[in-house]
Amino acid sequence: MSNSSTTTNQRITFARSPRGLPVPEDFGRDVTLIPTVGEGQFLSRTLWLSLDPYYRNVMKNSQIYADRLAAGDVMVGETVAEVLESRHPQFTAGDIVAVRNGWQQYALSNGVGVRKIDPTLAPVSTALGVLGMPGLTGYAGTVYLGQPLPGQTFVVSACTGPVGSTAGQVAKHMGARVVGIAGSTEKCDYAIKEMGFDACVNYKDGDLAAALKAACPRGIDVYFDNVAGDTLVAVLRNLAIGARIVLCGMIEAYSMDTPPAGPWLGPVVGARASMKGLVVYDHMNRMDEMTRVVSGWIRDGSFRYREDVTLGLENAPEAFCALMQGRNFGKSLVKVA
Ligand SMILES: NC(=O)c1ccc[n+]([C@@H]2O[C@H](COP(=O)([O-])OP(=O)(O)OC[C@H]3O[C@@H](n4cnc5c(N)ncnc54)[C@H](OP(=O)(O)O)[C@@H]3O)[C@@H](O)[C@H]2O)c1
User: Fold this and answer.
1) How far is the CA of 39 from the centre of ligand 1 (A)?
2) What average pLDDT values come out for the chain (337 residues) when binned by 10 residues?
3) Any idea which fold 133-277 has?
4) Atom 19, ligand 1: which residue's CA is nearest?
5) CA distance linking residue 198 with residue 158, whole number of Å
6) What's the gap in Å between 102 CA and the centre of ligand 1?
């Protein structure tokens, strides 16, 4: 088994759903025996445990995750582990794997969802960060959703974390002008000096919308949002025509017990929905098409409409006020003559 004579397994358990920001008392700890390997299973020793913001939502037993936690359960989580003993045909002792061992030293796996790690690619810990789930998030969200074009302005929040740093550097490789948002001077210096971002704004320095305006004089073409809240509000005031917003994470809200005021966009992420701006004047070339199609439906009786007619120009103000109170029913018109 392990090279020590250890037979015990230390575990960190779920104690209760946090109220607001998590505190250590939301967790428990216990010690169990290292489990015995059954047919079709392998035992691994956790080398690295990933800590990810979404665990805070799992601790709420949020519907969007499959995991369900009851008091005393071992905390769930991604790990990089070394296979110690295997009765599984695809794994052998010594393999390094990305596996959901949770917050414990040893765990069994049946191999489902387990990924073998090639230690020659990069340090194995990266399988939990930039070469793992967070890296894939930043990469796919940028390449396939944000789609920055060369020269366009790409803004990313939480820009030094694994998701944000991947998103920003992928956008840089795609030729975009990349502006980070981060919460300290040290993080911003790292973004510019180490990751080659063109600029970085510290949102704790004051008026973020104004700082973004200065850093993005031609507006923001792509915003990769990792935090939501006030940061998203400031970005929304600086969008360029045709901007794309990738709603990736909403960490500001994870520790709130009730969703923040305003439209709560969390379900947009869960539903993989997209939001697009519509300005009718961009579609004026479709006026003839619309007139032909809809008038045809009116004539064949498959399209209904209503008009709410007020008689006399002198009654227009009252009719307009009624419209703005929702007291019209159908297209509000004034019959002038
Ligand atoms: N959609 C998906 O499939 C998916 C997948 C993975 C991750 N995510 C999301 O992506 C985001 C980044 O994840 P990550 O793993 O790369 O984390 P991370 O960036 O290493 O850590 C979170 C960072 O968020 C920033 N932050 C901003 N406002 C915050 C607040 N009110 N409270 C706490 N932190 C705040 C902090 O950086 P600053 O100091 O720079 O602000 C903090 O360091 C998270 O929202 C995560 O849930 C989404």
Assistant:
1) 39
2) 71 96 96 97 98 94 85 97 98 98 98 97 96 97 98 98 98 98 98 98 97 98 96 97 96 88 89 92 96 97 96 96 95 95
3) Rossmann fold (3.40.50)
4) 161
5) 16
6) 20
Residue 9 contacts residue 32 (beta carbons within 8 Å): yes
Which of 251, 268, 269 for a ligand 1 pocket mutation test, highest count of atoms within 8 Å of Cβ?
Answer: 251
Of 72, 135, 128, 129, nearest to 104 (Cα)? 72
Choosing among 3.40.250.10, 3.30.460.80, 3.90.230.10, 3.90.180.10, the CATH entry for 8-128 is: 3.90.180.10
Domain boundaries, the chain: 8-128, 133-277, 281-335
CA angle (26, 29, 34) in 5-degree steps: 145
Q: Which residue has the tokens 């009116």?
A: 298
The encoded tokens of residue 201 equal: 């704004």
